[in-house]
From TrEMBL:
Residues 23-249 form the Glycosyl hydrolase family 63 N-terminal domain. It comes from Lentinus brumalis. PANTHER family: MANNOSYL-OLIGOSACCHARIDE GLUCOSIDASE (PTHR10412:SF11). It is an enzyme of class 3 (hydrolase). This is Mannosyl-oligosaccharide glucosidase. Residues 1-16 form the signal peptide. Cleaves the distal alpha 1,2-linked glucose residue from the Glc(3)Man(9)GlcNAc(2) oligosaccharide precursor. One of its GO terms (cellular component) is endoplasmic reticulum membrane.
Length: 800
């Protein structure tokens, strides 16, 4: 079977004329262990649930939404291509089952094509019972309808189950659920004769649920299932010997259907290994199990070949288990891309909230637009975005997304640009975009109430600029193809082949320059508006406190901080000075210098020459002010700036990630007189250096490991990626007094990070949000295949 999507490049949404692109369907419900939907605000949504039937307590271990509390030994897409499909493995030890989900897209028609899925199960421990009841469901939001073609039976159905439906976005479609060839259905157990009329069959449920509530399918489905169980065991309640029926006989869907149902559930009961197939057939297209039998091996072969081409492990990297490292790299890349979600719904904003040190404008009850202040629901929006963690952060985060897109862009340039365009489309008329995109009730259900409201004066690190810069760099490299035959030398012996593979999907905007220009022009104005919003709303004070700097305008301060946290900076509890309207933040001014350089690069590329000159002047002024305002000669480090009780300006110095920012964003020249002190700090085991990566806060700092301990020592992979990128691309590649030292630090740090994250993945089955600064053990959210998946880029030395 040929994977025809390979011949069909995606067109970003701004240029799409219909929904026939291969990215239309996907695993766009990443908060679920397995959930599919199209990129349509209101349409068909699917999901998978399962529980064990070994005993009556197993129903409490029903799996549906990814949850760290489920105690799984690991779950990840091991292979996933966004245009083709993939394979996911879920190790559910409490239920003693290894679930494998296979997903295959099948092109055809103008309505997003068809797809097939196979759900397989086998015991994790063969010597223990493995009795599993999977429930596949689908629900319809918005216009359209679904009907069951298979004749209803009050005691269950034997054989395939077939539904037909139609919506404006999907047109006519058929959904079929088909039993595998070698399943053992549960037909024997206590009181089997009393339930013989219902055993060995598929059980169903059809419900009419209110608009906007299909996402609560688990609750809707479990309620009648448990009621049926209670009714079924009622006759046995007085049995003093507790000789109850087999749980598989009573935990069954009731085979009942509401009038005009829009949520359907299909339940199986298996003993031991099992598999069943689900087919979504668009229009008159017909699929069968052979599609999966032939298609999945082909998908796997193509994926592995492409992965090795895009993310090779350099031959000079020494490891005792190359295949384990490769499988790890594939899994974290696959789970990042398989964790992309499509979200739609309202959000909550508060245009009036401000801490006292941020109250610089009018203090009335209405803002300048006349809108009332206070938490308010705003109009629904849509967003395609990667997610940091399917279990804990299954939504869009601005701070994270720029890093996600660096990784996704290497594998599928056009997909990364479609996601980037969705984010840029969220920029409002004032230039603001919320740092967390909590769109709709399903997303809000996973967020504590105190964090649901977004404030339009609060920013976040503008990491989307990194994705833009990476795209421009890829364009420049592509442009150089006609000028060079061998490759580009990126320093330290790394040769990048320049032979384009035009058959590779996801690179149309690289191969067709006119589309690239059109894309950059489409994002330029909103991104410029966003840039100007930053410069207007996050500006800091210079002349008010007698500060001396070559520029009188370029100084910045995060709005929205509290006494103990600067959530807007992304480094929540990292030590800062006391809140004050006159404080200045080193990380923010560094981001603004980088933002200015990005705007210069776009302007140059699309021919906005005057703008490019202006952005270059601002970038130079900002970088100059980093030295003038933030360098502490006494402490030999870059620092925040505070204001004391006498209104005097002073440096607030806490050795850690913050101190490195001008270096991390490659704003310093290789011959900077401050570079040596930065490398000393970075490499000192008493401060940031550890055998596992760079610590977020000096080990000698009194706050190290204290309190919340989120950014007070733990190792964060995205920050280590920035350090490695700076060492590799700039300070180890370009001539300067510290070139050799930078190269040596790079090699050692790279190995430390790779080995520790890989080791913890092998040990625990997960990659983690952060790593312990003393032991290297994984900490907090897992799986965290957002920016921790950057380890794949570190392995293959792909630094944008």
């Amino acid at each position: 079977m040929r994977l025809l999507w390979l011949l069909l490049p995606v067109i970003p949404s701004a240029f799409a004329g219909n929904n026939s692109d291969p990215l239309f369907w996907g695993t766009y419900r990443p908060n679920l262990y397995f959930g599919l939907r199209p990129k349509v605000p209101q349409s068909l949504m699917t999901g998978l649930m399962w529980f064990g039937t070994q005993d009556y307590q197993s129903i409490t271990r029903t799996r549906h939404a990814c949850d760290q509390g489920d105690g799984l030994e690991g779950y990840s897409w091991t292979e996933y291509d966004p245009r083709e499909g993939g394979v996911q493995v879920i190790n559910d030890a409490p239920n003693n089952v290894k679930i494998t989900t296979q997903f295959l897209k099948v092109p055809g028609g103008e309505y997003g094509g068809s797809w097939a899925a196979r759900v397989k199960g086998e015991p994790l421990t063969p010597a223990r019972p493995s009795r599993i009841s999977p429930i596949f469901y689908f629900g319809l939001e918005g216009l359209g309808g679904v009907e069951m073609e298979t004749e209803e039976q009050e005691n269950g159905i034997k054989g395939p189950v077939v539904f037909t439906g139609s919506t404006p976005e999907l047109d006519d479609f058929t959904i079929r659920v088909v039993e595998g060839p070698s399943n053992t259905l549960i037909t024997e157990g206590p009181h089997a004769d009393a339930f013989r009329h219902r055993t060995g069959k598929t059980h169903l449920l059809g419900l009419r649920v209110p608009p906007g509530q299909v996402w609560q399918a688990k609750d809707f489905i479990q309620k009648p299932l448990i009621k049926y169980a209670q009714d079924s065991i009622g006759a046995y309640a007085s049995d003093t010997a507790r000789n109850y029926p087999d749980p598989a006989f009573v935990f069954q869907l009731p085979d009942e259907f509401d009038y005009n149902s829009n949520l359907f559930a299909i339940q199986k009961h298996y003993n031991g290994p099992f598999e069943f197939d689900i087919f979504f057939e668009s229009g008159k297209q017909k699929l069968d199990s052979a599609v999966l039998d032939n298609g999945m091996p082909t998908l796997s072969a193509v994926y592995n070949q492409r992965f090795d081409s895009v993310f090779p492990i350099p031959s000079n990297y020494e490891t005792s288990d190359l295949e384990s490292l490769r499988s790890f790299s594939k899994a974290i890349t696959s789970n990042l891309i398989g964790g992309i979600g499509y979200f739609y719904g309202t959000s909550i904003i508060d245009r009036g909230f401000a801490y006292e040190w941020d109250q610089e404008d009018d203090g009335g009850s209405e803002d300048l637009s006349g809108e009332k202040k206070g938490p308010t629901l705003v109009e629904p929006k849509a967003l395609l975005t990667a997610t940091p963690s399917r279990s804990f952060f299954p939504r869009g985060f601005y701070w994270d997304e720029g890093f996600h897109l660096l990784h996704i862009g290497q594998y599928d340039n056009d997909l990364s640009l479609e996601i980037l365009k969705d984010w840029i489309d969220l920029i409002d008329d004032d230039g603001w975009v919320a740092r967390e995109q909590i769109l709709g009730e399903e997303a809000r259900s996973r967020v504590p109430a105190e964090f649901q409201t977004q404030v339009p004066t609060n920013a976040n690190p503008p990491t989307l600029t990194m994705a833009v810069t990476a795209f421009i760099n890829r364009l420049r490299e592509q442009k150089g193809l006609s000028e060079q035959d061998l490759g580009l030398d990126y320093g330290m012996g790394a040769q990048v082949p320049l032979t384009p593979d035009v058959s590779q999907p996801g690179r149309r905007l690289l191969d067709e320059p006119e589309l690239a220009l059109e894309y950059l022009r489409s994002i330029y104005k909103p991104l410029k508006r966003h840039y100007e919003w930053f410069r207007r709303t996050q500006r800091g004070q210079i002349k008010q406190y007698g500060r001396k700097a070559r520029s009188r305008t370029e100084a910045y301060r995060w709005r929205g901080r509290s006494e103990q946290h600067v959530l807007t900076s992304g480094m929540d509890d990292y030590p800062r000075g006391p809140p004050h309207a006159g404080e200045l933040h080193l990380d923010l001014i560094s981001w603004m210098a980088f933002f200015s350089q990005t705007m210069r690069d776009i302007a140059e590329f699309i021919g906005e020459t005057d703008d490019a000159i202006a952005f270059e002047e601002i970038a130079k002024a900002t970088i100059g002010n980093i030295d003038d305002l933030h360098w502490s000669e006494e402490n030999q480090m870059y620092c925040d700036v505070g204001v004391n009780d006498d209104d005097d300006s002073y440096h607030v110095c806490h050795k850690g990630y913050l101190s490195l920012f001008p270096f991390l964003l490659q704003l310093l020249p290789p011959d900077s007189p401050h570079l040596g002190a930065i490398l000393d700090l970075l490499r000192d085991p008493e401060h940031l250096w550890s055998p596992y990566g760079l610590r977020s806060l000096s080990a000698s700092h009194p706050d190290f490991g204290q309190g919340e301990n989120y950014w007070k020592g733990p190792i964060w992979i995205q920050m280590n990626y920035l350090a490695l990128s700076a060492l590799y691309k700039t300070y180890g590649a370009q001539e300067g007094p510290y070139q050799q030292r930078a190269q040596a630090i790079y090699a050692e740090l790279r190995r430390n990070v790779i080995e520790n994250v890989h080791k913890e993945y092998v040990r625990t089955g997960y990659v983690w949000e952060q790593y312990d600064p003393l032991t290297g053990a994984g900490r907090r959210s897992h799986p965290f295949t957002g920016w921790t998946s950057l380890v794949t880029l570190i392995i293959s030395e792909k630094y944008d």
